[in-house]
């Protein structure tokens, strides 16, 4: 059985929980709170020296960090990836886009506004918002007349981008001007066994 070291409110961790659920793979969830330094302990740093979650563990000895790498590892021989080289490349394009042009702005503003106590830098929020909206504009243009990002079916490209897009409002992002993105979000949410991110109690 897989073990997942994660945090239930994290979009990156949500990706891992989503693909495991969609593939009906049993797993044990080990909840860690980054705000309490639980990923910086000596014990956890043996699992991931980078001190970040999620981490997928197999047989108590193989540890795979980085959410999109985990998506690939679990989905590579399933319908959520592809056997076609060009489609594989397109999926990878969106995984890289998510990590470089989407997550650093959408996820960070969500974290700052929803989970950080104390003052936040308004200029950082503004800059992140501008770049995050640009990412949604790119997604909107691509999704016009499409149900999903690659091959007109759900792939790990969708799972990666859905993780923080479906809670974008938490970071101050309105998707009212992105009808294709909104339609896509509905399509992903409606997919059988698809889950949404958990909230703190």
Describe the protein.
The chain is α+β, with helices and mostly antiparallel strands and 201 residues long. The chain folds into two domains: 2-76, Glutaredoxin, CATH 3.40.30; 85-190, Glutathione S-transferase Yfyf (Class Pi), Chain A, domain 2 (Up-down Bundle), CATH 1.20.1050. The chain contains seven helices and four strands. The chain has helices spanning 11-22, 42-47, 67-75, 85-115, 122-143, 156-165, 179-189, and strands spanning 2-6, 27-31, 55-58, 62-65. It has a four-stranded mixed sheet with strand order 2-1-3-4, with helices on one face. It is globular and about 45 Å long. The two termini are 27 Å apart. Keywords: Transferase. Residues 1-82 form the GST N-terminal domain. This is Glutathione S-transferase.
Helical percentage: 40-55%
Number of domains: 2
Give the terminus-to-terminus CA distance.
27 Å
Shape: globular
Order of helices and strands: EHEHEEHHHHH
CATH architecture of the largest domain: Up-down Bundle
Structural class: alpha+beta
Give me the secondary-structure topology:
Blueprint: E1 2-6, H1 11-22, E2 27-31, H2 42-47, E3 55-58, E4 62-65, H3 67-75, H4 85-115, H5 122-143, H6 156-165, H7 179-189
Parallel strand pairs: 1-2
Antiparallel strand pairs: 1-3, 3-4
Helix pairs in contact: 1-3, 1-6, 4-5, 4-6, 5-7
